[in-house]
């Protein structure tokens, strides 16, 4: 994936690793952390973060899910709104592993559509209001 992912008059989403941006507090960088579902089961690993360049906020976790020994693994996006807690090695979310694994597969090409149907479908799938919706409140960092 190269550079920007979603662009409109208000925001551009970029993969943190593809930008010049950095995480201000290194302790808050969750890349490489295991994702744990609400039942305590491992769901995958945070492989990347999608950042809103204008607001400099994380909008999605890119989670490697499924597979065995890397075979059959696929990437999904999980809105940061699903995160309930973070510790030194884990990100806890309020969805089940099966729900995440069955979610829309991450496709950078679909994200470049200015009408945002892919992102809208992601938010509908997870049951959250899109970050561009009226009244949206960015979740605070879920400290331990």
From TrEMBL:
InterPro entries: Bac_photo_RC_H_C, PRC-brl_dom, PRC_barrel-like_sf
Pfam families documented for this protein: PRC (PF05239)
Residue stretches making up the PRC-barrel domain: 26-99
GO BP: photosynthesis, light reaction
One CC-aspect GO term: plasma membrane light-harvesting complex
PANTHER family noted in UniProt: BLR1072 PROTEIN
Protein name (record): DUF2171 domain-containing protein
Organism: Glycomyces albidus
Native organism taxonomy: Bacteria, Bacillati, Actinomycetota, Actinomycetes, Glycomycetales
């Amino acid at each position: 994936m190269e550079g920007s992912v979603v662009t409109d008059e208000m925001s551009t989403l970029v993969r943190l690793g593809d930008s010049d941006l950095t995480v201000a507090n290194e302790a808050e960088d969750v890349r490489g952390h295991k994702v744990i579902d609400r039942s305590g089961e491992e769901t995958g690993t945070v492989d990347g973060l999608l950042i809103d360049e204008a607001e400099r906020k994380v909008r999605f976790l890119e989670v490697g899910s499924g597979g065995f020994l890397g075979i059959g693994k696929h990437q999904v996006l999980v809105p940061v709104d699903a995160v309930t807690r973070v510790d030194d090695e884990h990100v806890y979310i309020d969805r089940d592993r099966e729900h995440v694994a069955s979610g829309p597969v991450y496709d950078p090409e679909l994200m470049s559509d200015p009408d945002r149907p892919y992102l809208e479908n992601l938010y509908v799938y997870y049951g959250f209001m899109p970050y561009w919706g009226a009244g949206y409140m960015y979740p605070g960092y879920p400290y331990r």
